[in-house]
Amino acid sequence: MRIILLGPPGSGKGTQAQRLIERYGIVQLSTGEMLRAAVAAGTPVGLRAKEIMASGGLVPDDVVVGIIADRIEQPDAKKGFILDGFPRTVPQAEALDELLKHRHLKLDGVIELRVNESALLDRVETRVAQMRERGEEVRVDDTPEVLTKRLASYRSQTEPLIHYYSERRKLSTVDGMMTIEEVTRAIHRLLLALGAIEPKTHAKAAQAKTSAKPAAKAAPARRAGEKASKKAKKPAKAAKKASKSAKKAPKGTKKAAKKTAKKTVKKTAKKSAKKGPKKAPKKVTKKRAKR
Ligand code: ADP
């Protein structure tokens, strides 16, 4: 399985990536984490990235593309990977397409976690407060000022990727305002629909009921697409079919997700009305704190 998680800071990419790697045994490739490690180790890359990261800007494309190119060559990435924080610009996405093409690898899909911007600052603030409580070192870019800059970078440089991948029929969107558990379930359903995972080994009975059909259609087509030589027409058709059915499935998922989201939002609103405005998704902050 090769997927990209796309979303602004605080959208829950790290949390969901953690859950995916535990469940499917693939690796998470987080450029943010790799860069932080480089900064901590004082490598040449780290030295180049340090100031840029601290100010909320983006590290040059050639640097992160180089890091990812090396990383996907590692044996542990052979089974598949989740890209978290990469690509972050259109040139990075183009470079990734090239990298994968040269290695005859296929991207299963791009999952966008869509969240209300107003929730992001709260989420990050809570994460910081909890890290402080635990006596952990807080990320230098987790301040309200830098977060505003990170959000601006996301909007201007990363958001165009939504259009990029949707044009290439790779994009699926999940409502990131649902509970962590619900988001995980929605992602799971998408992965089934995309044929990125096998229904029998991973689906629970209830999930299989709703998702088995499109997944069954999508899987053989995807395999055909993977084996496809450039000239072969059939596999191309099959791949098209797969992306169609994959597209169809999220629709149903989206509807269901919307319903649940509405419920959740209502519930949350009620709860926070009682508790005060800062209703923090505990698990999100806990997991994100690890990064
Ligand atoms: P976030 O939690 O904001 O998504 P990350 O942990 O993914 O942040 O990344 C932290 C910082 O590392 C970014 O603000 C940016 O400076 C740098 N960075 C990470 N990934 C990339 C990338 N693909 N391209 C450029 N800069 C990156």
Describe the structure.
The chain has helices at about 15-25, 30-40, 45-55, 60-70, 90-100, 115-135, 145-160, 160-165, 180-195, 200, 205-225, 235-275, 280-290, and strands spanning about 1-5, 25-30, 80-85, 110-115, 170-175. It has about 290 residues and is of the alpha/beta class. Strands 2-3-1-4-5 form a 5-stranded parallel sheet. The chain is globular, with a radius of gyration of 19 Å. The protein starts with a strand and ends with a helix. The structure holds adenosine-5'-diphosphate.
Tally the helices: 13
Identify the strand order in the major beta sheet.
2-3-1-4-5
Shape field: globular
CATH level-4 homologous superfamily of the largest domain? P-loop containing nucleotide triphosphate hydrolases
**Helical percent range?**
55-70%
How is the CATH topology of the largest domain named? Rossmann fold
At the first level of CATH, what is the class of the largest domain? Answer: Alpha Beta
Which spans of ≥5 residues are poorly predicted at pLDDT below 50?
202-291
User: What's the helix-strand series?
Assistant: EHEHHHEHEHHHEHHHHH
Beta-strand fraction estimate: 5-15%
| Biggest β-sheet description | 5 strands, parallel
Radius of gyration from CA coordinates = 19 Å
